[in-house]
Every structure is written in C-alpha cells, then in structure tokens.
Amino acid sequence: MTTAHAPDGVTGSRTLTVRYAGGGTRRGPVTMGQANMIRCILRDEPASINIHDVWPVPDGTGMDRALDALAALAVRHEALRTTFPREAGGGAPTEQAVAAAGSFTVTVLDHDALPEDTDAYAEAVARAARDTRFRLDLDFPLRLRILARAGRPVRVALAASHAVTDGSALGVLRDEWLALLTGEPLPPVTSPTPLDLAAEERTPAGRRKSAASLAHWERILRTGPQAMFAEDGATGTETDTPGLTLRSARGARALAAAARRTGALPGTVLLTAWCVLTAHRAGQSVCVAAVPTSNRFLPKLARAVGTLSQDALLDLDVRAPSFDALLAKAWGAAMNAYRHSRFDALDLWALIGRVTTERGSQFARDAVFNDISALPSTLAAAAAPDEAAPELELVWGEAQALPTRLLTFVYETEPELRLATWADPALFPRAAAEELVTGLVLLLEAVAEGDLPLDPPGLTGVTGVRPAARGPEWVRVDGCWVSPAAVAAALSGALGGRAVEVVAEPDPDSDGDGRLLTAYIGTDERAWAGQESTPHQAHTALMAVLPGRPGVLAPHRYVFVEGPPRQPAAAQRILREGTGRGRDAT
C-alpha cells in the first residue's frame, strides 16, 4: 500500500493492489476496432481519447466486497486482462495478449463528508483521471478511484482505455458491478471476446464485409459534401465546445406520438428528424453523419465487453417532399450504414488519403449522432436525475476539445427525451445552439401532428432554425459548398504569396449546371526556376494546407499565365496548365 497526494477535501488517500486469477492465457491479432482506437490513442491527447464513467455503490457495501467485485469483472472479461505488446521498430501494436492472472491498483479517496452533489464530484474525479495516458503494453485498462466516506465506498470514478472498452462496454461492466454487489447471479458470457472477433474478421466472409464497407465509404467520400458545415466561420480541425443538455417530457411525448402515427421505430424517427434539422441548418441536400453505436446493432455484440468503436457513415439525401417520404427511406439508409461499419482502419485511412488527393477535398467528420438510449447505461453525465422530467429544460456544461462541429448523444427517449449536444460556438453561439436543440423538439411535435413538408421556409417556420447564410461568392462545386475567393487565398498562401485568381466555370461534361474550379496563377517567366510552377506542385502545396478549411476545394485545373492572373484569361499567354492530380505538368 502506498500513499498518494490527497485532493482538496480528501482526508486520506491510499493505493491498494488487487490481484486476480482465472481464465486462460491467449494471444492473437487485434480487432479492427482495437486497431482503429490504438491509432487514435497514439495520435491524440489522452484527455480526448480516454473515456470515463461513474459507478454507484449500494449502501452497506464494504471495501473488501467492492474490491472483490472488481477482481471478478477482470476474471470474467478477457478484455480487462488484455495488453498490446510493443512492435519491433516502434510501430502500432498489431497483437493482443490476454493474461490468466495479474493485478491492478485502486486509489481510495476517503472523506469525512462528501460534497452535497456527490455525482458531480465523482464525475469531476473520473474526468480528471482521463488526463494520463494508458501504456498499451503494461497498464490495466481501468484507472480506478473509489470515493469513500469514513472508509465506506460510495462511488467508483474511473477512466478507461479506449483500446479495450467503449461507452457501451462500460455500461455492461456497470450493470454487472451492481449485480455482483447486490448478489444477483450473472449469466454466462455469450458475446464474442475481442480475440474471437479478430478471428471472425479474418475469415473470407469477414474480409468481404470489410471490403464492402470500404466501398461504401469511398462512394460517399467521392460524391458527398466534403464538410457539412462549409460556411463563413468554419475553420480549424478541432473546436473547444461547451455541452448543452436537453431534458424534455414534451420531446418524449412527441417522439412517441410520431412513431405511432408513422409506424416507424422511435430511434428512426429521431435520427431522421436530427438529419433533417442538421441538413437544413447547414444548407445541404444530403446529411452525412457518423453514427458510432451502429456497430452494436447485431444482437450478439450488444453486450460485448471490448471496443467496437468504428463509425458507420450515414448519407441521407433529405430532398423529399415530406417528412414521411424521407422517413420511408431513412431506415434503409441507416441499415446500409450499419452494415458497413466494420473495416480495416489502416485501409480506410489509406483510402481517405487517396480520395483526398484525387478529389482535391478534405473530408471533415463534421456531424456525429450517437444514440445510446437502447444500450446499457454509460457515463455518469447520462444518469437520470431523480426529480420528475421537466417539459423542456436546457443546461449548459463544461467545454471540451472536439474534432467535430456538431455532436449529439441521445441518452434516453422515454419517459423524457434526454440528449446532449456539442455545437461549434463559432457557428452556433449559445442562443443558436439552444435554438437548434429546441428546434428538434418543435420538429418532433409537428411530425407527431401530421406529415410535414420539407421546404426550407416551412422548416424555418416550424423550428426557428435558419439555414446558413452564404454570400453570392459561395458556389456548389462537385457536391460541396465552395468559396472561390477562399480557394484563391489558400492557394496563394501555399505558393508563397503568388497572385492567384480562382473562378467557377461551367463543366462541359455536365448535363446540368455542374461547375469546375480553375485557378489562374500569375507567373514571371524570367523567375520560373525555383518556383512551384507545375500543376502537380501547386496541387500538392494546396493539399498540405487544406485541413481546417471546409470551404476550400482544390481546383480541377491549374493554369499558369504570364503576368498577373487577370481576366480574360484568353488574353494572356498560358505558360503551363493541367489537373495537378498526377505528376505530369499538363
């Protein structure tokens, strides 16, 4: 036992070692989900990739019983006994090792009296535990803090390695923890272990599924909008975003009534409404969104303890005459996304890199919808308060850094609609974020009353949410909103300040009103040597500065002209031109 530094308000702090033994020793390849999260763990700051939870402790539970229950969970689930051996050469781990026995530590923070809001305090302790990086090859995947009052455990606040657990897995562990402490029998584990999943993924059928998933992603990456929120103010790849929590009995009643009226599942109604409102606000005809919990839609995976964290990528064309007409195709679009949510993460990132260069775009994971209402309870922040549900209540929470512009977690749909939304404050000042969340409730209420036309003025009238305001300089190119002036500024900066003009011109191969971007780059032929003066060089330079600029799409043609790039270009001498996608100059 060792003594640790005691936080304010803690009368005693000690670290206990808990030993466990049981199960077998196994070793094998990592799963696709593990590989995906390991990549993120090695790249991102620990506070942004680690996850956390708070577990209640039934009254009368002694410390020894609590520690025994934690050891029992480690024996029961291979994932908790898993580490990832280092690769020779320092690359990302590709194997996982399951131990038959081992130990972990628990820090006990003892108090004479806990703060009045014990759950909020435990949440803060758990969140702080996320700040330290897990060592993949050595550490037990749960960093455990027991908050005690006079030696009696009251809450468990923990951080978890995302390489071994996800939010749903923590919910399963939370349920089983309570069962162990209340004496309820636990059923046998029937969900596949991570090693079982890895073996399944490497079968011919598993490889075909992965290939089909990559094809699904490639279609969307090549044809969908590169960013949902391409507009003035949308900059950077990460935003410091405060959370906004909605609790609404009105919303729950409206969702249930809309589901009864349409005969659709409540989850499908809510997803469709969220997509409609997101696309409406973004001024897009397609809603492209990541829906992470989809990879648990198979019953055998619903209670798996492991990390299944891979995105399903949903693309829902919202151009429909009415909500009911859109709802009729939304379920199929969602299932298509869910079926294509297991893939080799390294292959996906190679695909994204290839499509990025060839399309001249930078895919932004702008919109994320995570409905965990049907899964085991997870984060302490999602725990339902004891008081009756308010008709409509909004509460602002702490900010956190997020690589997305709109993230919604749905915690509960009955007897109240309870969700949290993080919206980029550069695009959604507090009043606009509140308008977006309350607009979702208003939309559900309108849909509960009857079918709703989906024209933009009508949606604004119903929800109060207005589409993004874009000036006349914004144009639609290749399915994306683009600012030619922003493209010119980015390209000029990438080329060391050279004069650039970018224009959107009609696409001669388009049957409709398709447009192509052409960049005219001013060049002094006498200073040609040493300049980036081929289309390929210009394209490569622009692609390097593209991340965080959702209104910038690479030109389809780079034209180097003698002198300043003024119009009409036909009056200038063209020195060199080409697409820039290949190494050829023309």
**Order of strands side by side in the largest beta sheet?**
1-6-7-8-3
Task: Describe the main β-sheet briefly.
Answer: 5 strands, mixed
Arithmetic mean of pLDDT: 89
Uncertain runs are: 1-6, 378-384
- Can you give the helix content as a percent range? 25-40%
Number of helices: 15
If you compute it from the alpha carbons, what radius of gyration comes out, rounded to the nearest whole angstrom? 27 Å
Q: How does the overall form come out from the CA principal axes?
A: globular
Q: Please count the beta strands (DSSP E, at least 2 residues each).
A: 21
State the distance separating the first and last CA atoms.
71 Å
Structural class: alpha+beta
Beta fraction of the residues? 15-25%
Task: Note the topology.
Blueprint: E1 12-21, E2 26-29, H1 32-43, H2 46-49, E3 51-56, H3 63-76, E4 82-83, E5 95-98, E6 101-111, H4 118-129, E7 142-149, E8 152-160, H5 167-182, H6 194-201, H7 204-223, E9 239-248, H8 249-262, H9 266-282, E10 286-290, E11 313-317, H10 323-339, H11 345-359, E12 367-371, E13 393-402, E14 406-412, E15 417-423, H12 430-449, H13 456-463, E16 475-477, E17 480-482, H14 484-494, E18 500-506, E19 515-523, H15 535-544, E20 557-562, E21 574-578
Parallel strand pairs: 6-7, 12-14, 19-20
Antiparallel strand pairs: 1-6, 2-5, 3-8, 4-5, 7-8, 9-13, 9-15, 10-11, 14-15, 16-17, 18-19, 20-21
Helix pairs in contact: 3-5, 7-11, 8-12, 9-10, 9-12
